Amino acid sequence: MTTPRLSALEDDAWQGFLYAHDGIWREIEAGLAPLNVSMAEYSVMSLLGRAGRKGMRMSELAKRRVMSTGGFTRMADRLERQGLIERRRAAEDGRGYVAVLTGEGRTLLRKAWRQQYGDLRRLFLDRLDEDDLRDLSRVWAKLDLASEDPASSS
Which residue has the higher pLDDT, 70 or 33? Predict the structure, then answer.
């Protein structure tokens, strides 16, 4: 039995995505390194920055980061020890916890955003025109597994 192969176009598209993602990821990660922030930590802090002063439930952060609750808890412990976030009981029900950026966390996030946005422009956005960006946005929407109906994917 032969293994099905990708067409040349499919292979070019897939390999292009992998190489572009890997190269951009490594450059952005290197840009954040002097701030002592990993990409995983940056993404959590960025989500919290967008959530504002009300913060975000720990369970929602873990879900959005596609991490186990335990793995996320360990990362949150590190960020809390560094004074970048704090955890509070959820005001609406008192059962769960909400993570919130501290003042120090917001300051670091602003520096990280400046660094990352500059790198994103240099490595990615400035190389594309508006039509390219619209095309990519359309493609990402098609590939959004979170919005997929579980019944239709079986």
Answer: 33
Q: What is the CATH number that goes with domain 27-134?
A: 1.10.10.10
Amino acid occupying residue 142 = K
Against a cut of 0.85, is the pTM above it? Answer: no
Domains of the chain, by residue range, sit at: 27-134
The answer, yes or no, to whether residue 16 has pLDDT greater than 90, is yes
The pLDDT of residue 11 is: 96
